[in-house]
Design brief:
The protein has helices at 8-11, 15-19, 35-48, 51-61, 69-80, 84-106. By secondary structure, it is mainly alpha-helical. The protein has one domain (31-106).
Length: 107
């Protein structure tokens, strides 16, 4: 059994080719003071459960002119906003409570 070592020049590969495109795999983080950076901070705050911070950041991003940032901010704002069903259930419970109190004490 003979061992053959392959010469990179013989195979057509070079060390420059092997290391090429290594920078394409890294994602650059957006600048923290840009709208995309604030959107990332809002997403991180959402994942951490800091909904007050999410509301603060989303309110500043609502008028963003960067593509997709305003829409993504609106979606995050909708997620942490008040659920309309919850508001109606609360109003119904308050009416029921007032009716019971009125029936017990007023009638």
């Amino acid at each position: 059994m003979s061992e053959t070592s392959q010469d990179p020049a013989a195979t057509g590969a070079s060390s420059a080719d092997a290391s090429a495109d290594s920078s394409d795999d890294t994602d650059e983080a957006p600048a923290p003071d840009s709208d995309a950076g604030r959107l990332k901070q809002a997403r991180d705050a959402y994942e951490a459960g800091d909904f007050r911070r999410v509301r603060e950041l989303v309110s500043t991003l609502s008028g963003s002119e960067e593509s997709g940032v305003a829409a993504a901010a609106a979606e995050l704002g909708r997620r942490v906003g008040v659920d309309p069903v919850q508001a109606w259930v609360l109003a119904g419970c308050m009416l029921l409570f007032c009716g019971i109190v009125y029936g017990y004490f007023g009638g």
